[in-house]
From TrEMBL:
Keywords: Carbohydrate metabolism, Isomerase, NAD. Homodimer. Its EC number is 5.1.3.2. This is UDP-glucose 4-epimerase. Belongs to the NAD(P)-dependent epimerase/dehydratase family.
Length: 327
């Protein structure tokens, strides 16, 4: 019989694309999501859907008892860096407590395989670029700290309970599949905001700082296609039999805010008016991943390394879903 995989946050942007790939490979997938940020319509119809909150220890306990998964992919979390610097305890409290409840349930039921969504924010404003797994950890926000706390918990659970885990430190997830894309309320991410301008839903895009020490003065980020991220989860899961691991997961190419806007103009044919704004608190100038480790160990490589292709997939989805997942 097919293996059962529990996916927390499987109704969210990245989780829903991973679910789509897992279902495509014939896995039995159970999505556990409180729909605080996720969308019911994003969950693949062949996955089981359980609406529940990880802060409710009994809810996750009974779900694991009922479906008996062999492995867990843990996406569910609050994930806004800026918000975490306004209300840090929402992150240090809820993200950590949600993980704790999930891990306790796994220990209770002897579920020994987990993939954790982690973040490049673990490295704060890094001393070296590109950022490798040996770059110094210094979380740049309460959000990043909440993920680092979970990574540290997992290291102890491996040592004491034999729980195998992979922590994947995402850089900037972007792009879409034909059916699944980025729909946050409120939207704060650059690419969907730019495409909302192209759709006529916003008047302009504000560039947060144009005096950074980069070639064009705007911040450089490593945008990685969500399908490439998803594929990395599937490979990491298969590799857990050989032991736990942590990987930095980016495309390896940096693109500036200006590059993103230019590329969106080319792809959409819309002028996309820009205004200069203040720097956003906590934004480092450059974040680019060194993904050599995952490339070498899991034979993973991005299928969408070009920003233009990433943008095109996002634009296709935005055009076919102008109101996101809303009816
Ligand atoms: N950004 C911007 N204007 C916006 C939203 C984002 O200039 O309206 C910039 C932001 O400062 C950062 C980059 O775009 O340098 C990517 O931001 P996003 O929020 O998409 O992802 P993050 O890097 O924060 O994870």
């Amino acid at each position: 019989s097919a293996k059962t995989i529990l996916v927390t946050g499987g109704a969210g942007y990245i989780g829903s694309v991973v679910v789509e790939q897992l279902v495509g490979e014939g896995a039995r997938v159970v999505v556990f999501d409180n729909l605080s940020q996720g969308h019911r319509a994003a969950v693949h119809p062949d996955a089981v859907f359980v609406e529940g909150d990880l802060l409710d220890a009994e809810a996750i306990e009974s779900t694991v008892a009922e479906y008996r998964p062999e492995s867990v992919l843990h996406f569910a979390a609050h994930s806004l860096v800026g918000e975490s610097m306004q209300v840090p305890l929402k992150y240090l409290g809820q993200n950590v407590t949600a993980g704790l409840n999930l891990f306790q349930t796994m220990v209770n039921h002897d579920v020994r395989q987990l993939i954790l969504s982690s973040t490049a924010n673990l490295f704060g404003d890094p001393e070296e670029i590109p950022i490798s797994e040996s770059t110094k950890i210094a979380p740049g926000s309460a959000y990043g700290e909440s993920k680092y706390i979970l990574e540290r918990m997992l290291a102890w659970l491996e040592q004491i309970h034999g729980l195998r885990y992979a922590a994947l430190r995402y850089f900037n997830a972007a792009g879409a599949t034909a059916e699944r894309g980025e729909d946050h309320t409120p939207e704060t991410h650059l690419i969907p905001l730019v495409l909302e301008v192209a759709l006529g839903q916003r008047d302009q895009i504000t560039v947060f700082g144009d005096d950074y020490p980069t070639e064009d003065g705007t911040c450089i980020r490593d945008y990685i296609h969500v399908s490439d991220l998803a594929q990395a989860h599937i490979r990491a899961l298969d590799a857990l039999a050989e032991g736990s691991r942590v990987y930095n997961l980016g495309n390896g190419n940096g693109f500036s805010v200006q590059d993103v806007i230019e590329t969106a103009r080319e792809v959409t044919g819309h002028p996309i008016p820009v205004v200069s704004g203040e720097r956003r608190a906590g934004d480092p100038a450059i974040l680019v991943a060194d993904s050599q480790k995952i490339r070498a160990e899991l034979d993973w490589k991005p299928q969408f390394p070009q920003l233009r292709d990433i943008m095109q997939t996002a634009w296709n989805w935005h055009q076919s879903h102008p109101n996101g997942y809303a009816e």
